[in-house]
Amino acid sequence: MRRLFHHDRPGLPANWQDILTARSGLWRLLDADEQARLGVLAEDLLATKRWEAARDFELTDEVRTVIAAHAALLALELDSASYDGVGTIVVRAGAMRRVAPMAGPVAGVVADVGAVDGEAHHGDGPVMVTWSSARREAANPRLGRDVVLHEFAHKLDMRDGVSDGTPLIDDEALRERWIEVCTTEYENVRAGNSVLRPYAGTNAAEFFAVASETFFTQPRDVESLKPDLYDVLRAFYGQDPAARIRTRIAEATTPN
To answer: d(Cα 196, Cα 208) in Å, to the nearest integer?
Structure first.
């Protein structure tokens, strides 16, 4: 049973930057301008979307800030309508078990597909994320996973009404290049020859979601091992996360 929590301050808390500095490895890579613009997007997600907690979980400032910020990161350089299809954001303490239809000779058969950390639904359907995973992955990008990035990437994919691994891309040349590169890399995943984890080979929609989270969490690996994939993701998202890491490394090693 879901319980809706109402907050006196629906947007970001006063200490939101401190929360992200302590809890988000990706936030610390952004420059000051990017951090400021991300804050505006996160504020909008918190103020305009319905936030719910499942099974008496508490939506603390930390929970809301980290999830909103990582969702905003995907849309940092995209258009303002990117998340119009997000109606509700549901946060759970831990993973849930999902029962899904299973193909077979008997109609209506369902199977337990195991524990899942998140889900994204079509239309204005909800996005569900597990806080235990979101918190751990936000703090440790090297894990190569981020349930918030993953599920909100699904919502970007769904903007044109279908989950087919190809988001809305107005540039026809980029769209054709996207399809060419991602189709090739999808086959590479299924053949066991990819920087992306095997789950990306489930279907085209999961490929896009996994590619997106890997692009942000392990960008240098994608850039060096799969440069064509990195290029189309960089072109779509308008961001260069590998360059951000190089900049931070250079800053850290430059003598004062």
So the answer is: 10
pLDDT, tens digit, 9 for 90 and up, residues 201-245 = 999 999 999 999 999 999 999 999 999 999 999 999 999 999 999
β partners of residue 54: 2
E-assigned strands of the chain?
2-4, 50-54, 88-92, 96-101, 110-116, 118-120, 127-130
Residue 154 confidence class, pLDDT cut points 50, 70, 90 = very high
**Torsion 233-143-165-162 (CA) sign:** negative
The model's pTM = 0.89
Question: Quick check: 212 and 150 in contact, CB under 8 A?
Answer: yes
What the chain holds in terms of domains, given with CATH numbers, is 1-143 (1.10.472.150), 164-256 (3.40.390.10)
Which residue do the tokens 């204005």 mark? 124
Residue 110 makes CB contacts below 8 A (sequence gap 6+) with 99, 100, 101, 102
